[in-house]
Amino acid sequence: MRMGRREAWEGRIRVAGQHVQAPRRKPRGLGHERYDEILTAAKELFIAEGFATVTTRKLAKRVGLSQTGLYVYFKNKEEILDALCQRTFSRLGERLRQVAADAPPSLALFRRLVEGYIEFGIENPGEYMLTFMVAGSGAKAPREQDLSLPLEDQGPGMQAFLLFREQLARLGDAGLLKPLDPTLATQVVHMAMHGVVALLIARPHFGWSSRHLLVDTLVDTLLSGLARSNSTS
After folding, report:
1. What secondary structure does DSSP assign to 123-169, as a single string?
2. DSSP secondary-structure letter at 177?
3. Could you give the domains of the chain?
4. What is the pTM of this model?
5. Each residue of 107-153: pLDDT tens digit?
6. How far apart are CA 54 and CA 171, in angstroms?
C-alpha cells in the first residue's frame, strides 16, 4: 500500500500491520553548524579508521546527510582534510603567539617556543597526525610558497611557520644566534621538533626517556649549533 503524504512526512512505513519508525535524515541546520558537524565527524572517523579507508558515503551517513548533500559543503574528502589541517595550524599559531607575547628576545624564549610546539603536538595527537603525518594533507598547498607575502595573506600553516621564523630572526638580531638564514634555521628546528612529536605519538610504548629530558636535550643540542658561543641569556 502506498503511504499517504502525511504518513511519509512522519517518516513511518507500514510493515505487517505495524508502524515502524524509518531512518530519517537530520533537518537542515545553519550552514556553519552543519559545516562544523561534518568536520567533527570527519576528524573522529579519520583518526579512528584512517583517512584512506573513510569514504564520503560513510561520512555522509554519520552526519545524517546524503552523499550529494555532503558535496554541498565539501567537494571531496581531501578538501575536508585540508579544512581540518587549517584549523590545527590556526590553533598552533595561536599557541606560538601566546608563548611569544611581549617576551624579549632570549634563549629562554627559544626554549619556550620549542616546548610549546612539542606540547601542542602531544596534547593533540589525532589532529597532529592528520595535519603532519597523513599523505595528501598538504595537497592544496602551492608547490612554491611566497614567504615574502604579508603574514595576513598567508594560510594558517605558513603563518605558524612564519611566526616561529620571526622569533628566530629576533634572536638573531639581538646577537643571540649565529648569522644564519632565519628560514633555514626555522626549517631545521621544525624538523627536529616534528621528529620528537611524531615518534612520541606513533611509538608511545617505546622505552623513551622522560619527555622533559628529551625536550631539554633537544633544545640544548639545537642551541649548540645555532647560538653564539658567548650567548647565555
Report:
1. H-HHHHHHHHSSTTTTTTS-SS--TTS-GGGS-HHHHHHHHHHHHHH
2. B
3. 25-75 (1.10.10.60), 84-226 (1.10.357.10)
4. 0.81
5. 999 999 999 999 999 999 999 999 999 876 655 655 567 777 888 88
6. 44
CA distances (Å), 48 to each of 2, 42, 136, 208, in order?
A: 41, 10, 18, 25
Contacts (Cβ under 8 Å, ≥6 apart) of 71: 56
Say how many C-beta atoms besides its own lie within 10 A of residue 57's C-beta. Answer: 11
Of 114, 222, 119, which is closest to residue 177 (Cα–Cα)?
A: 222
* Interior/surface letters 106-138, b for 16+ CB within 10 angstroms, e for the rest: bbebbbbbbbbbbbbbbebbebbbbbbebeebe
Report pLDDT for 148: 78
Whole-number CA gyration radius for the chain:
24
Dihedral sign from CA coordinates of 188, 191, 194, 200: negative
Contacts of 20 (CB under 8 A, 6+ apart): 12, 13, 14
Alpha carbon distance 233, 223 (integer Å): 12
pLDDT digits (tens, 9 = 90+) for 5-38: 444 333 433 434 444 343 344 555 555 789 999 9
* Kind plus residue range of the DSSP H or E element containing 69: helix 67-70
Quick: pLDDT tens for 201-212: 999 999 999 999
Helix/strand/coil for 15: strand
Q: Is the CB of residue 134 less than 8 Å from the CB of residue 81?
A: yes
Cell of 202: 606513533
